[in-house]
Design brief:
This protein is α/β, with parallel strands linked by helices and 442 residues long. The chain has 14 helices and 16 strands. The strands form four sheets. A six-stranded parallel β-sheet has the order 8-5-3-2-1-11, with helices on both faces. Strands 12-13-14-16-15 form a five-stranded mixed beta barrel. The longest helix is centred in the last third of the chain and has 27 residues.
Length: 442
């Protein structure tokens, strides 16, 4: 069989496949995602989508570039479950230099088929804490700590890593640099970049979660980036407790303005949209509902300050209530999942001053006498142009009116308008009637 014949046969085969609609399999790829935020439900959804996509495309591996301070334990557990059951091997690479995989990030790192870190990174400190960051009471702490330690032992034993040292990150909050983690067999490689990592692991066996041994040859393989959808980008942004608190506060202020100026439409629309976005984000986070009551109670105090002019006491109380409500709003396990004191103050103080100002204007407007239309004539003082016995003419507000009085009023005497009946005024004598020196003539 000559080379020319083989070449002709191969070309004919390609043409036949094209004509019959049969496509050649796509070259194997490495799917890469970047997780550089706290671990929350949107992170879980993003990673799950990536793993599903890799399985559909029969990719060689999934590379998760990780940089996180930690996050929610429920989301962390679901991510670990997806990684350990993935048919496509998962590589978790803590990068770039100067970043970390702390707390929940360490659990995710240990659950990977291959764990790697870049120089200048760190990991660990996986001890569970309360939502406000404080230590958990002793009895409850023992239960949660034992549960987290058992999860860590289960994962590291399946991956063939150092169980005792890994457990110390849970019980003693230990942290490790990349070299310390490599020395203690918590990770498999330290690599300057992903290509360096692929070269180091080329052809080397690793243990999958179900116990099988596998190898990967990824050096030179194309890398396909997998990005968040627009929806996930938006949700990830508003999942920041500080953003959610700002949206909630601005939405409440906008609705407050709409209630004080019915028919304005724009404040009401903005308020509804912002509050719905805040509620959606808060629904995915550990929220203290008592804090929501404190936030809305602050608006009541602002309104009372404007109504009773309590020399700032009620206003200061409202600002303090809103600050406390903001700080307690999200019961996050790490500082990145809680509202910062700077955000609470920056929102509460201006919001309190603006709300009191708007309420003061509204109350003044309601107390002011109407000065336009027929209602504006009531209480006005005029002059009787003719005797009223009981009917006659009066000059009020620059106009001559038909008028009627319940008592006799002489021409030139001052009168006060009591009521407007169509085009006729009901008047009474003024308490201090002053005759007009020069009568008005028309």
């Amino acid at each position: 069989m000559t080379p020319h014949f083989v070449k002709h046969l191969f070309r004919s085969l390609l043409i036949a496949l094209f004509l019959t609609g049969v496509s050649l399999p796509a070259p194997a790829e490495v799917l890469k995602i970047v997780v550089d935020d706290v671990i929350h439900p949107i992170s879980e959804e993003f990673i799950s989508r990536a793993l599903d996509d890799a399985a559909r495309n029969h990719d060689d591996a999934v590379l998760i570039e990780l940089d996180t301070p930690g996050g929610m334990m429920d989301s962390m557990r679901k991510i670990m479950e997806r990684i350990t059951t993935s048919p496509v091997p998962v590589i978790v690479y803590v990068a770039p230099s100067g970043h970390r995989a702390a707390s929940a990030g360490f659990f995710i790192l240990e659950s990977a088929d291959i764990a790697a870190m870049a120089p200048g990174t760190n990991t660990g400190a996986a001890h569970p804490v309360q939502g406000n960051g404080a230590d958990i009471p002793k009895t409850l702490n023992e239960k949660i700590e034992n549960d987290a330690a058992a999860l860590m032992r289960s994962v590291t034993s399946k991956r063939g890593r150092n169980i005792e040292v890994a457990e110390s990150t849970v019980r003693q909050s230990k942290s490790f640099t990349e070299q310390e983690a490599l020395k203690e067999k918590l990770i498999d490689y330290v690599a300057t970049d992903e290509q360096d990592l692929f070269k180091q692991m080329q052809g080397k066996p690793f243990k999958r979660f179900e116990g099988q041994t596998a190898t990967l040859n990824l050096a030179g393989q194309p890398i396909r980036m997998f990005n968040m959808t627009l929806k996930q980008h938006i949700l990830s942004f508003i999942m920041d407790p500080n953003i959610a608190f700002i949206l909630l506060a601005i939405g409440a202020l906008a609705l407050y303005a709409e209630f004080n100026h019915p028919g304005a439409v724009l404040p009401g629309t903005v308020g509804v949209v912002f509050i719905l976005l805040a509620v959606f984000a808060l629904n995915l986070m550990p929220v203290r509902f008592a804090a929501l009551i404190l936030i809305f109670a602050s608006f009541v105090l602002f309104a009372l300050e404007a109504k009773f002019a309590a020399h700032g006491v009620l206003g200061i109380g409202g600002i303090a209530t809103m600050v406390i409500g903001g700080l307690l709003l999200v019961d996050g396990p790490i500082p990145e999942l809680r509202v910062h004191i700077s955000t609470a103050l920056a929102v509460s103080v201006p919001l309190g001053l603006i709300t009191i100002f708007l309420m003061t204007l509204a109350l003044k407007a309601r107390r002011n006498k109407v000065v336009t239309g027929q209602e504006g004539l009531i209480g006005e003082t005029g002059v009787a142009q003719t005797a009223l016995s009981p009917q006659g003419k009066v000059f009020v507000h620059g106009e001559l009116w038909d008028a009627v009085s319940s008592v006799e009023i002489a021409a030139g005497q001052s009168v006060v308008v009591q009521k407007v009946d169509g085009l006729r005024l009901l008047v009474n004598p003024a308490t201090a009637a002053q005759p007009v020196a020069t009568p008005v003539t028309l």
